[in-house]
Amino acid sequence: MDSVLYAEKQKQKSEEHEALCHHCGSCCGVVDGDLCLNLVKSADNKYFCKDYANRSNQQQKTVSGKNFSCVPIRDYLRYNPPYANCGYIGRAK
User: Fold this and answer.
1) Does pLDDT of 93 surpass 70?
2) CA 68 → CA 7, 22, 40, 49, distances in Å?
3) How many CB atoms lie within 10 A of CB 87?
4) What are the E-state strand segments in the chain?
5) pLDDT digits over 8-34, tens only?
6) Please, which residues have CB within 8 angstroms of residue 88's CB and are 6 or more apart in sequence?
7) Based on the number of CB atoms within 10 Å of its own CB, is 5 exposed (0-12), middle (13-18) or buried (19 or more)?
8) Contact of 29 with 36, CB cutoff 8 Å
């Protein structure tokens, strides 16, 4: 398969996977109370990253001051179980 087609297929798969998100904020600290500083809550009680496009390119910080590197949700779910009602349950791979 040519590299351009492969890259397009990978992008499509990533978009399909991310579309499953319910924007509950659990992966970003809502459950444990140590939220990412880039996490914002909308008027309809959904959470979004205010720097989503650049989240993986820089060191991130939680409200308690912990540093971390943001990783794609697929990588996160390989090592952490999804939370109740998570749109990714059963789809981590």
Assistant:
1) no
2) 27, 23, 18, 15
3) 15
4) 39-41, 47-49, 60-61, 67-68
5) 998 898 888 788 888 999 889 998 899
6) 17, 20, 21, 73, 77, 82
7) exposed
8) yes
Residues 35-80 have pLDDT tens digits of: 999 999 999 999 999 998 888 878 999 999 999 988 888 788 888 8
Return the closest-CA partner of residue 36 out of 56, 10, 63.
63
- Tell me if the pTM is above 0.85: no
- Residue 44, amino acid: D
